[in-house]
Structures are given as structure tokens and as C-alpha cells.
């Protein structure tokens, strides 16, 4: 069996090499060469399609070159895969071009993979779009000992600078006051909440990483947010998604991928300049933020510091924290406002609970345990918002037999979070906004095991504790001070925008002051 597996892997490697050669000759513009190449690549594609590992997870039959790309709903591929899982089972193979990708569907399957077989699914695949920008450094798309070192450092440093403690709670509450004031200044008139919400959330991670906050109209934070938001939007475009499948070909074409690289370079340059300035003023006895802590780590002289705590890793790590720390919480809060407008009766119930428990005082994290309905609403916003429906990609670290299927080392595996968050075995009304999913018969808050918006296992979100506190404090502060409504003559559109994350389309809202 091992010889068979090795031959199949060898065939895959050979085929990929021929594919790259084919792409190169396509641009020689020699008709005869192009015709011969097409014939060769089609024959090899047919041969490759027959080189299957025994018991490899099932899936729809692929076409040459494009695989199964033609059957995926470009606006919601996660929905296509859930439908396919009804035919092929909870472990489904989809051919992304010439690459086999495995999708895990349903909470029980995802849990089994990421918790019970966490080591085997612990890697990230090398995605060309990120390999070109961060060279696989940082904490999100790194692997091996470098990833372990960056994750340990990130978790310990976030804790040191207040994650989950009163220090960071005070920062969030201070920022919530700035946000409330900025929204109040709109005086009930329609406004796009993206910039204000984004800036407030961004200031929390910026204060941890850089040690200070920005006013919402300062060019530095506006530019940083613009670079990140534009890249998140562009990453959802078909051509950028194809870049990860056919990088050699797409690299030769004009298109949004070039803007992604341009924006990424600007952000990385900004981060590099920032930490170089901090390096000049570094006081090892007075570390004020994450960058200071990293720079001190560099000076320890230990083998780990010399090997992993280099400047490129710092730049990529800070970029990862900026993107992850800004995007998911911002998008969740924006979904929250829209859903409160869509369901005014739920908005009123949240406000009544806020009045009963908090009154006009500043919301505190400790209030959460006394506010089961508000807690349930926030959880339901996260579930329905489903910011990363496909989940972040994993990669097998070694050959594994999982659920009766053989998955070879180096296979990209996506835990389809959408399938867990809409799992009918755990959620009574999976496709409706129904806060009662998180309430028992007595109205007490109840946990639901399949609620995994931050994923689970070794690669779960490092900032989960911070995000939960931000969501509660920002959301309650906003509902305490405002009633949200749609502008006169408009209706709430819950159709997500085309983007790399599952966020709302651009929209206007009105915030009516309650005081």
C-alpha cells in the first residue's frame, strides 16, 4: 500500500511540474507548441484523475484542468459543499483545479478532526497569495516550530497586556465612549457605520501592539483600515481566488491580485517603519506593548530568539494581528446592528435587559452573567453572521486514515464552520435568527457545543477571549445609548457582500439617541 501511495504522490508532483511548464509555453504564442501542450496536459490530466489513493474521500467527478470549480457557487461555495456532503458524506473531496482539497462537514466531524486528531491536522497549507506577501511568517499561515514560537509569544503577550482582564476591559470601555460620541454626532441622520466601528475595534488591537490609540479621523488609522478592508474585499474576487490555484498563470495577468500585493507591501512597510522607530527608544525595563516585548525577546540571545524572532516574523505577526483583530469583530458588530434593525422586537428586549441590569452605568464584563438574553443575542449574531464560513485551511502533517478515508500528508483540509453553525442536530432553526438557540426553558443562558465561530483545536483563534469581551462591551454600550433603524424608505438587506469574509454589503443606518 505504501508503494501505491508513494507512486500516486510522485505522479501528482510530476503533473504539477508539467502544468507549470504548460503555463509557461502558453505565453510563447507559438500555435503549434500551444496545441501540443494542450494535448499533453489533457492526457496527463486523464492519467492524474486515475491516480487515486485507496479510500481517498469521495467527491464529484472533476473536469480536466479546472477540477470542480464549475459546480461551486462563487457567492457561497460553502453552501454547495454542504449540499454535496448530503450525497458523499461528511468528508468530501473537491478538486480546486488540479489540487484535491478535503472539506469536513458537520460539527461532530470537525470536532473529531481538530480535537481528537489535532496533531495530524495542525499545519496550514502554503497559499501562494500569502506566501508571496508574508513568506509564510507570522502566526496565521506559518507552520512548524516557527508557528509554535509565534503562537506561544502571542498568547502570553496578549495576556500580559490585559487580554481577559480589567486592563483591557477599561481600554474597551474608554473606546466605547469615543464610539458612542462619534455616533451621537451623526444626530440620527443616516450614516455608514463601517469606518466608525472599524476604527473603534482597530484601536483596541493597536493599543496592545503599538501602545496608543488614534482619533477616528487621523490619516494613519484611516489608511491602515483602507488597506486592510480593500484587501479583504479583493481577496473575494474570482481572479484572486484563482491565484491560489494557478499562481504562475495569474501572476502574468493584470487584475486585483496586483492591488492586493501593493496594499500588503504598504502595510508591511508601515509596520516595519513603526518597529524600527521603537527599536531606537526601546527600554528593556519598561515594555509598553507587544512590539516592545518582541524586540526584547530578540535580544535574549537564546537559540529560539535567534531562529524565530527575526524582523520578518515580527512584521508578519503584527500584520496578522491587525487583520484578525480588526475584521472579525468589526463585521460581527455591523451584522449585529443590521439584525437589530431587522428584528426590532429583539432589540427592545435587549434594551430592557440592559436597563434592568446596568441602567445608565458603564457596561462591565461582569454584567454578562446577569444578562442571559443579551448574551444569547450576541452568540446568535455570531452564528448567523458566520464571518469565515469555510473556516481557515488546515493541512495534514502526515498520512492519516480518518472516518474510514485515507488522507495523505500535505492535503489541504477545510473545517466548514458554516456546517457546524447550521448543524440541525444542534440548532433548532439553523437558518433563522433565533436567540433561543442559546437559552434553556427557564431563560438561562446555555452553551451549544457546535457554536465554534473561532474554530477549535490547536489552530483556534488566539484572540478569542479578547473578541468576546469586545463584542459584549461594544454591543451593550451601543444598545444602551441608541435604537438602530433603517433610513426612511429603505429595507434591511442581509445579503452578504462578495469578499474573503462573510460581511454585510455597504449600507446606511440611523442611530436614534435614547437619552
Q: What this model shows, in words?
A:
- This protein is an alpha+beta fold and 515 residues long.
- The protein has 3 domains: 51 residues; 106 residues, no CATH class; 335 residues, Orthogonal Bundle (Cytochrome p450), CATH 1.10.630.
- Strand 1 and strand 2 form a beta hairpin.
- Helix 12 packs across helix 15.
- The chain is globular, with a radius of gyration of 24 Å.
- The protein starts with a helix and ends with a strand.
- The N terminus is likely disordered.
Layout: helices, strands, pairs:
Layout: H1 2-26, H2 31-50, H3 77-88, E1 91-96, E2 99-104, H4 107-116, H5 128-134, H6 144-160, H7 166-184, H8 194-209, H9 219-234, H10 238-243, H11 247-250, H12 256-280, H13 290-298, H14 303-308, H15 311-342, H16 344-357, H17 372-385, E3 394-395, E4 400-402, E5 405-407, E6 412-415, H18 417-421, H19 464-481, E7 482-485, E8 510-513
Parallel strand pairs: 2-6
Antiparallel strand pairs: 1-2, 3-6, 4-5, 7-8
Helix pairs in contact: 1-2, 7-8, 7-19, 8-15, 9-12, 12-15, 15-16, 15-17, 15-19
Largest sheet: 4 strands, mixed
Task: Give the second-level CATH assignment, the architecture of the largest domain.
Answer: Orthogonal Bundle
Rg over CA atoms, rounded to whole Å, is 24 Å
Order the strands across the largest sheet as they lie in space: 1-2-6-3
Shape annotation: globular
The CATH H-level superfamily of the largest domain is: Cytochrome P450
Structural class: alpha+beta
Number of strand elements: 8
